[in-house]
Amino acid sequence: MKLFAALAPQIRKGRLRELxxxxxxxxxxxxxDELARCGVRRVNVSLDTLDPDRYRSLTRxxxxxxxxxxxxxxxxxxxxVKINVVAxxxxxxxxxxxxxxxxxxxDMIGVDRIDQYLPLxxxxxxxxxxxxxxxxxxxxxxxxxxxxxxxxxxxIGFITPLTHNFCEDCNRVRVTASGILxxxxxxxxxxxxxAAMRRSHDDAELxxxxxxxxxxxxxxxxxxxxxxxxxxxxxxHMSATxx
Length: 243
Fold this sequence. Notes:
By secondary structure, the protein is an alpha/beta fold. The chain has 2 domains: about 1-160, TIM Barrel, CATH 3.20.20.70; about 170-240, no CATH class. The chain contains 8 helices and 9 strands. It starts with a helix and ends in a 28-residue tail after the last helix.
């Protein structure tokens, strides 16, 4: 929360357009009000299932009830909520209607492993067999492509790094808790910000490291799952980097 409190004045000064948070939601009930006071106006909550047992299995012991309480708390605090769902074979396929209805009834949605890999085309066909989708020109700062669901009036966004490469539009970089800057989730790139900070008494070297990393941001990713590749080319799991 110290980070959000420090960034809040930058919104009032116009230096930041918005503050958002991607979270697993397990502590959202505790922090929702404070996040709202810091100027956060929307949160992305990772929620791949609405089945408590399946959720516990996917998250290795997580509590679905805590996440649902967090979503309710966020909405009560005035935060817009978007649900991020990783499309998983034999999981999303059986729950997509339930997830979509759950999200749209609350004005939320967003759809973002070899045996679990579910191609976008297949998922979209499944959704379109039961719902009416119309493509929207709406874009955010991220890679999602949005469609309107006629029956609910809500929107659904598809993020598809494996089947549809969006690298030319990507403006994302990520800093891990250990101080490593990654400019692409699908490359083994890394810039050590912590080491640069420790070597210098001012920000000069840190800025050089950041600018160099941004300048060399990869033109494409190495997320590869196809008949010629038995597993993704990237050895670093996405969960090790964060959202």
